[in-house]
Amino acid sequence: MRDQKKLEELNEEINQITVVDEATIINENLYNEILDSEQNLDAALDRLQKNETDIVLYFPDNILETNSYKIFTNNDELFQTLGYSTYGSSLINQSALITVNDPQLISLLTQNFEPETIVVRDNGVQDNIGLERLIIPGFSMLIFFLSVFISGQYMLQSVAEEKENRMIENLLSIVSARSLIFGKLLGLSGAVFTQLALWASLSILFLAIGNSESISSAISISSLPWQTVPINLVFILLGFLFFAAVMTGVGGVGTSYKDSQSLSSIFVILSVLPIYFITILISDPNGVVAQIASYFPFTSAMMFVLRNSISELSALEILVGVTINIIYVLIAGVLAEKLFKLGAIMYNRKPKIGEILHVLKSN
Amino acid sequence: MNSIIEISNFSKSFGKQKAVSDLSFEVGKGEIFAFLGTNGSGKTTTIRCLLSIYQPDKGEMLIYGQKYNFELSKNIGYLPEERGIYTRVGVMELFMYFGSLRGIPQKETKDNALNYLERVGLIEHKDKQISQLSSGMQQKVQLGLALQHSPQLLILDEPFKGLDPINRQLFIDLFRELRQQGTTILYSTHVIDEAQKLTDRLVIIDKGKSKAYGSTKEVRKSQGSENMHLSFIGELPKNPKLFKSTQTNRTAELIPVKGVKPTTILKYLIDNNLEIINYSLDYPSLNEVFISLTNSNE
Questions:
Q1: Which residues of A touch B73 (CB under 8 A)?
Q2: What parts of the sequence cross the membrane (chain A) (predicted)?
Q3: Cβ–Cβ below 8 Å for A173 and B73
Q4: Where does chain B hold its CATH 3.40.50.300 domain(s)?
Q5: Which candidate from B78, B83, B85 shows the least CB-CB separation from A173?
Q6: Which of A165, A176, A179 has the CB atom closest to B84's CB atom?
């Protein structure tokens, strides 16, 4: 049994425990050569000072009113003393369990139950909302943030630094702006997704060599909604391409990497807006807020990843989501190329709003 | 003339500001052609439009008979005015990177780079980081990048900018060697002394408009009668009724006022005790032409 196991583990680390049980709640059968008792606290503390005992557990007579007991020890190591508190609680639990004779009842009292919460939707669909339901959304969002925002920053740095160190014009005489942007995107995608693959491999390796039994007992891997993963990956890729395009345009317009970073913060804030409404979005993934955010260019991909992970999107919604995100990527790509061409060789000054609007309107 | 570059009626504006108006010139095969103008006169804009970095508003800009495309870039070397270079990479690494962008085989890139570094005296720096090189050395590396694929046409925007006299001469010698090998060079500058020594033909622009175009001699000849070039000891007397003068140490170019004969001026100088060491009559120097043309509208 779990409490018994804890007691045995602690007993291995300490030589003597003394109990002062004014409330008479500890069962006498639990005392042994390691666990003894004292009638009063002073005597017990005296023994503690003389190192005749390692811990004094003091259960006062009003323990039921105060819900509190004291542990005295001469060991000031934080993590060990934290363990002593579980020792006292385990002792109380064991004392209570000894009085129960029914083995089935003891089993019920000592087992860890894992409730499974199922939400029955209006349409009769049953959604499992156990802890494991958060694994796929959690990982998806983590990958989204890592790939989209971190790599977006890499893209920004790459464009802005080349502009800052005046390499751009040299490069543009050899390759077209479109080829240069596309090449950067391709290289960056390769780097980011290799990085992600490496992290995923390490995680799998870690799970394989770690305590996989305890993980599999806590999480039912097979019950995870794996079918959502491919769709999430599609939205992550689209979000990555969209954000990289935005950062290309911003990098082209800024006068330096630092300046471009300041400019990019506007778009980063726009993109992470859903985080501020995360509780609303999780509690109602198909509500008005979620719907609006799903079609706003800067939050669309992230919202579809989130909604696809925590609720069941219809095939039509997924199709519309993918289509609209492809359109956003194409528009962002075209605008980014125009801004890049406008600003890439505009040194020491940013293009004026009028110039930006003019170039965005031009064919 | 077998033209490599043909620019006709080219205009470009930025917003309401007219950068270049109705500019036309041609660059012949194997010649060194200077594109002269003051700062902000439209030289860089013209070159950028020629290379399709900017789009021209009007006119035609052809290289080898076609609008610039990236297929042509295999045969063109370009040195931009805005000098830029990756500073955290090695010299050879940079050559290899640009070589791969141009699709040159690695061995060829390496051999060409080593030959070039040897020629410009940078061979012992080949393994250094760019950031460890002086600005002059970095400029040599940049020129090397423009030359690494042995282009038939070189477009150089202010190639002498920021160079000390020794490196300036090195670049001049290098350009002459390239001309002998058949390379066509179009370069922009406002350093006129080098242009007179180096250039076969030229165009002078001011505020985006062409002011003079032709061979160096033609342009000089077109800008007035023969000027007096003299070297002397003493102080050059001034007489605006007879001549204007441009003086450099103990040499001067005197531009006679219309109707005044050189002999009259010579007499005036001798009467004012100027010891003349050398004297010749020649067309106005390119420097004088440049100053008179670019000052005339101000």
A1: 173-174
A2: 134-156, 185-209, 229-250, 262-282, 288-306, 318-336
A3: yes
A4: 3-85+147-220
A5: B78
A6: A165
Smallest Cα distance from B247 to chain A, Å: 37
CATH no., domain B3-85+147-220: 3.40.50.300
Please tell me the distance in Å from B239's CA to the nearest CA on chain A: 46
Interface contact B51, partner A, CB < 8 A: yes
In chain A, which residues have their Cβ closer than 8 Å to the Cβ of B101?
Answer: 171, 174-175
pLDDT in tens, A210-241: 555 555 555 555 666 677 788 888 998 899 89
Please tell me if residue A357 touches chain B, with a CB cutoff of 8 Å.
no
Q: Collect all residues of chain A within an 8 Å Cβ-Cβ radius of residue B51.
A: 173
pLDDT band (50, 70, 90) for residue B298: very low
| String of DSSP letters for chain B | --EEEEEEEEEEEETTEEEEEEEEEEEETT-EEEEEE-TTSSHHHHHHHHTTSS--SEEEEEETTB---TTGGGGEEEE-SS----SSSBHHHHHHHHHHHHT--HHHHHHHHHHHHHHTT-GGGTTSBGGGS-HHHHHHHHHHHHHTT--SEEEEESTTTT--HHHHHHHHHHHHHHHHTT-EEEEEES-HHHHHHH-SEEEEEETTEEEEEEEHHHHHHHT-SPEEEEEEES-----TTTEEEEEETTEEEEEEPTT--HHHHHHHHHHTT-EEEEEEEESPPHHHHHHHHHHTT-
Per-residue pLDDT tens digits for B163-208: 888 888 899 999 999 999 999 999 998 878 778 888 999 999 998 9
Instruction: Kindly report the nearest CA distance between residue A346 and chain B, in angstroms.
Output: 10
CATH architecture of B225-282: 2-Layer Sandwich (3.30)
What is the per-residue pLDDT across A265-319, written as a single tens digit (0 to 9) for each?
888 888 888 888 888 887 788 888 888 999 999 999 989 988 888 777 888 999 9
Asked whether the beta carbons of residue B73 and residue A174 sit closer than 8 angstroms, the reply is yes
Inspect the interface and report whether the beta carbons of A347 and B73 lie closer than 8 Å.
no
Q: ipTM of the predicted structure? A: 0.73
Domain ranges of chain A: 2-110, 126-361
> What CATH number labels A2-110?
3.40.190
